[in-house]
Amino acid sequence: MTQQLTKARITAVDTHDIRFPTSRWGWGSDAMNPDPDYSAAYVTIRTDAPDGLEGHGLCFTIGRGNEVAVTAIDALRPHLAGTELDETPAGLDARYRALAGDSQLRWLGPEKGVTHMALGAVVNALWDLYAKRQGKPLWKLLADLTPEELVAVADLRYLADALPPDEALLILRRAEPGRAEREARLRAEGYPAYASSPGWLGNSDAHVASAARRAVADGFTQIKLKVGADLEDDIRRCRIAREVVGPGVRIALDANQRWELGEAVEWTRALAGFDPYWIEEPTSPDEILGLAAIRRAVAPVKVAAGEHTANRVVFKQLLQAQALDVVQLDACRVGGIPELLSILLLAADFGVPVCPHAGGVGLCELVRHLAAFDYVAVSGRLADRTVEYVDHLHEHFTDPAVIARGRYTAPSVPGFSSTLRPESLRAYAYPDGAIWRTA
């Protein structure tokens, strides 16, 4: 039930350029991105409400260009400052459509690129604040909405040929029986996770072995390795990982868009002897027909993609083209909660599992809410579902992701878990924070 709250107005929309020097340790390194500095274009929405609660959202970037994302968020400020805070799902949806519909900013996309990511940061911050004021973690807030309310919030524009509103409503109504039981199971057992930390391309063979061994000991049943720079190196690293984890643990591979189509097929087949579970982003994320061709050629190895997919319409086409075995939506790439809902509904309609992209700055914190909501209220399934996990930067958040026995614990703190600690905001502000002044 939605709690009735006192009226409030938005008094400030503050932005921050936050960067972590992760390239120093090789964190996040892969064949396409050898030296990422995990970063966040971070927004704080403040109001005049006496509760003092704030909404927080972010765009995830990997260093240079983070200032561009900050500027894009700043461009949305005139739509927010001084306006009345939205206190219902319908009000939040109207706000989303108004922000997304700024014709001059939309021209820069439309619905793709930095302006769309900025929209997502702001919309997610508004939902974060709404969930905090309702006293619920975001996944629970969404799961408590009726199917009719969820369909009204989901952005289903341009999807009618694949997912008309009545079909979306049917998906949600079919999931209603058993919601309470699934929620209880989620709280008791958590949500399956897989470990990406063993696989950074900049790490030594010894690190691959030790990190893979530790992941298995911690209860993970899947790990991921970065591939695509050098085939002999990939063969050696895959051999090391498979020997360490044994045949009962899945190994996913991630090429980070490195290959041409023929190369993707040849390279994946060359690694097939190590029984890879999926090959992730084997080519350009916009190569819909190419991904479909790769999928046909490398089966039974699955094809996974989506972290760089710009919007729900491209996801629709990927699914229509039978280009994906695994949908990897990103909480900070698309236009926020309304579009994330539509992508979850699309995947459920096509029967394709969602295994969200995480890692980065805050992505683990955010996507665990989406996965939990999907399980409880949309797909109702855990089979072949897993959420990426990396073991760094969580300490900078007030509600950090927690892993127990290889599973994400269900978030219990009100909001979207997107709040950075004040001391981290100060220390990692770019270029004047203490970390960067001493770099």
Please compute the radius of gyration using only Cα atoms. Answer: 21 Å
Strands of the widest sheet, in order across it, are: 5-6-7-8-9
CATH class category of the domain at 171-424: Alpha Beta
Q: Termini, distance in Å?
A: 50 Å
**What is the third-level CATH name, the topology of the domain at 171-424?**
TIM Barrel
Task: Find the count of extended strands (DSSP E, 2+ residues).
Answer: 12
Write the CATH architecture name of the domain at 171-424: Alpha-Beta Barrel
Individual helix count: 17
How much β-strand is present in the residues?
5-15%
Q: Summarize model confidence as the mean pLDDT.
A: 95
Helix content: 40-55%
Organism: Streptomyces lonegramiae
Keywords: Lyase, Magnesium, Metal-binding
EC number: 4.2.1.68
Catalytic activity: L-fuconate = 2-dehydro-3-deoxy-L-fuconate + H2O
What does this protein structure show overall?
With 439 residues, the chain is of the alpha/beta class. The chain has 17 helices and 12 strands. Strands 5-6-7-8-9 form a 5-stranded parallel sheet. Strand 5 (222-226), helix 10 (231-245) and strand 6 (250-254) form a beta-alpha-beta unit. The longest helix has 22 residues, at 113-134. The protein starts with 9 loop residues before the first strand and ends with a helix. The mean pLDDT is 95.
